[in-house]
Design goal:
The longest helix is centred in the first third of the chain and has 19 residues. It is built from eight helices and eight strands, in the order H-H-H-H-E-E-H-E-E-H-E-E-H-E-H-E. By secondary structure, it is an alpha+beta fold. The strands form two sheets. A four-stranded antiparallel sheet has the order 3-1-2-8. A four-stranded antiparallel sheet has the order 5-6-4-7. A hairpin with a 2-residue loop joins strand 5 and strand 6.
Length: 238
């Protein structure tokens, strides 16, 4: 089973999280992206992608519109994206991404969860190198060979490409996500993307059992309850 499955599984897990937190995180992300790149969708492809993703996760448009209206009204809030690198039980590792307007609150809340699960916060760079930071785009309707030709013609370098059934999955530089989608849409304007994410994929995975697995799942649950935690990436085979 391909690496794209892990991205899908993480998305499914997030869909099952509390709706209030899901809506809050989208409101923050949409506000920050609109503030940085403007509120017009045609001029801000990152905002368009984020809103499309919110719709897929059934976030009410009222949440989306309020975040954009806040930018248009001149409200001045600043959210910072920060990663915390964690050593979990028995060789497991995690990258905990937070989107926060208060870094002190963020680190205190994450550290409290780690302490309760008896795991250790690592120094910056101590875990990150064990993961590939990539964008993942999957779709049907263009063959793998044609996809390679399209991206080659537009000068976009990719990390990898694979096919699962009739679905093509492209892995690339995170900064190239919108460029990859635009190049493919230019070839097929009706193309729909099953997946378009920026994520961290572990280079190697571990399997946990017994108490280690219970402790790891408890850690995931506790991190999910932290207001500022946006995404959790890990190397555990679940």
């Amino acid at each position: 089973m391909g690496r794209a499955y892990e991205v899908r599984k993480a998305s499914i897990q997030k869909n099952g999280a509390a709706k209030a937190k899901l809506y809050s995180m989208y409101a923050r992300e949409i506000y920050q992206v609109a503030k940085n790149g403007g509120t017009e969708l045609e001029g801000n492809p990152s905002l368009k992608r984020l809103i499309d993703k919110a719709k897929k996760e059934q976030v009410p448009m009222d949440i989306v519109n309020r975040a954009i209206d806040k930018v248009n009204s001149g409200a001045d809030e600043t959210y910072t994206s920060v990663n915390y690198e964690v050593f979990g039980p028995n060789g497991s590792t995690l990258i905990v991404n937070c989107l926060t307007d208060n870094l002190n609150r963020s680190i205190s809340s994450v550290r409290a969860a780690l302490n309760k699960c008896h795991v250790k916060l690592g120094a910056q760079g101590s875990v990150n190198y064990m993961y590939d930071h990539v964008c993942v785009v999957s779709f049907k309707g263009i063959s793998e060979e044609d996809t390679l030709d399209i991206l080659l013609e537009t000068g976009i370098d990719i990390n990898d490409i694979e096919t699962e059934g009739d679905e093509v999955i492209v892995y690339g530089n995170p900064n190239d996500l919108n460029s990859i989608k635009e190049a493919l849409l230019a070839k097929n304007p009706k193309l729909e993307f099953d997946l378009d994410e920026i994520t961290y994929l572990p280079k190697d995975k571990v399997t946990l059992e017994g108490e280690d697995l219970d402790n790891f799942n408890r850690l995931l649950d506790m991190l999910d309850e932290v207001e500022d935690v946006n995404h959790v990436y890990h190397n555990v085979e679940l």
